[in-house]
């Protein structure tokens, strides 16, 4: 399978992995956001992932690839299914397609991004509602919710997509991966490769490990940092024990706790594990 | 979304639909054939579906498209996940890509198949073990389990893929669709479009309706015609009632009853419903 195939498969394996407390998974839906919306999002995103996987002398820009993926993902009524997953998968696919699927390779891939890539990232927010934190007080013009309206500011300040991610790295777990060579993703993928049993069970355990290791930034945006830290402690208490995590999954669902960034990291780890030849 | 996207999505929506008594579904695995294998099969089949969706002056043959799809589907350890689904989806995708997605259009699509298409169909059996009935007593040379070894016989007798399907139409539910303009598939798709609620629930109800309407030919191969008829009566008793079908799903799983051909028809109906604009 190609990197694009692996990315498409990672999107569906992630949502199929259960329990992933607080997220839609094989056994749980949210009220208006259901498993089937994620399946449609995964297929819809494919054309954007193909842009990411296209290499050569003049490859499509990562910003265009991401915007296309998000636009395609949004052709279902559930809303935002995989925006964060795609933000991670697009550079991962490009790195894999250019034989650079390593932390150093990812650093090179993201460092090569341009202001046009940043513009594509901002335009992607026009296709779907994404839960995000407020921008830094000194950068209101860079609020992602402005979508394409923020592009002149990007151009004035000469901000690349890597620059934009650096600005959010302390508040957004996906941006932090962009800024760090995807180190948590690669670590999680190693854990999946070292684990055994069905792949979706391994991914559910990887999710718990990631959540226990660091508070989920989407939970922090929606419920505050203290609650996010408490959620991680609860995940730590059931790490490695999928049966024990079932109760947590039911409770987080009831309480509206959605560690979505950790699910994004899990999808990205699934991609790396597939590229590394995990058994399936 | 393109016909190829809709076919890829139909494959995952089918396996996600639950309960589909006796089949792998969102809530049930078989012992060595799990949900994740179907997700991998769906992604792997994509390159073959793309051949089916490629049209123009000299389109790829449907036999090559089918063989490629099955080969790609087989890149996982679960075995045969979607052979029958693909046998239906390949001509459906071609018909949709040429604006002929109707019973008459499918009759035209299948009537245009050649001996080369039949050869591709036979070669596909070399990629995966498929549960099939014995060939007619007067045609042992046409046993599909011979794979490519049967191709000289196909050429000697000038048999097209449509001819091969006609020979099995009375014993194989998928072949029967090929011979009838996919009438049951189109009828089931209309039922899905007229139904409401989540699409995977609609597809589960469509599965029950199809199973109640006619005995599953895979069950007949594996357990005999009487048992297949009894299975259909049991499905009829719970038609339209997914809660009541849950018990049946648990029981069929325990008893090794796998109405897989009916699941194939359900995937094909999902494709047609998606092409007709079903809400998702």
Automatic annotation (TrEMBL), chains A, B:
It holds the Pfam family CitG. One of its GO terms (molecular function) is triphosphoribosyl-dephospho-CoA synthase activity. PANTHER family: CITG FAMILY PROTEIN. This is Triphosphoribosyl-dephospho-CoA synthase.
